[in-house]
Write a structure and sequence with these properties.
mainly alpha, single chain, 12 helices, 246 residues
């Protein structure tokens, strides 16, 4: 009886006190992405990844217990490489910075990424318990970049310090994940512009309740001039009576 190629190989337990060698992790993760893009989720096996990476199957199983966990880490690796958190765009405006994160891929690279995300979605349908880990892998790298850009916008006074940037920084990355994992559509500039101009910028400009509304918390009447709004009510009534005399 032969061992199934996706069953964990018998591995020698790590010796106490020895740190696991992770120097080959990047090579293995890149190999996993290549295999996933080529053969899809159903065709991906640990044997294929090991062969592509030039590593032993036991070496891979010391780090990942299943191909789903390997693919999730591989996608996180890909996402981290797509955004350089240390060198984010700095255009002087939040809108420009957010749009500056977009780097249009070639047709081939765009198709490759879509195949990878389709493969991840297929694997997650079988392993729902790992959905949260997959969400972190796909969303968090970009959410971290969006949060850094919004914090910079707060620091220069472009948006209010009371804006809920912790939540809003998650919006575009989450919608992008939905677009690729569920709708199976690529991320393009038109999608990003619609999200920035239609959702993020208006949400950041909309002050939370009670901010800039005075001590009463009443929103100013947009049809009334600031001078009339601030004038005491009795005085306004007096002026009205004076104007009504013949």
């Amino acid at each position: 009886m032969t061992q199934d190629e996706d069953e964990p190989a018998e591995v020698e337990p790590a010796r106490p006190g020895r740190k696991r060698d992770r120097s080959r992790d990047a090579t293995i993760l890149e190999a996993a992405l290549e295999v996933l893009a080529e053969v899809g989720a159903a065709g991906l096996t640990m044997d294929l990844v090991a062969a592509r990476a030039g590593a032993g199957k036991a070496t891979i199983y010391r780090r990942w217990t299943s191909k789903v966990e390997l693919v999730i880490d591989a996608v996180a690796h890909m996402k981290r490489n797509q955004v350089d958190i240390e060198h984010l765009p700095d255009t002087g405006t939040l809108r420009g910075d957010l749009l500056g994160l977009f780097k249009p891929p070639s047709i081939e690279e765009g198709e490759r990424k879509l195949k990878i995300m389709t493969g991840l979605a297929s694997l997650l349908s079988q392993e729902q318990a790992l959905a949260e880990a997959a969400n972190s892998a796909v969303v968090e790298p970009w959410a971290e970049a969006h949060l850094a850009l919004m914090q910079r916008a707060v620091a220069r006074g472009e948006i209010s310090a009371s804006a809920d940037i912790a939540t809003l920084s998650q919006v575009i990355p989450s919608m992008a994940a939905y677009r690729t994992l569920v709708q199976r559509k690529p991320i393009d500039l038109a999608f990003l512009v619609s999200m920035v101009d239609g959702v993020i910028v208006p949400a950041l400009r909309n002050q939370p309740s009670g901010v800039g509304q005075g001590s009463t918390g009443r929103r100013p009447d947009p049809t009334t001039s600031p001078a009339d709004e601030s004038a005491p009510a009795p005085r306004r009534a007096s002026r009205a009576r004076t104007r009504s005399k013949p």
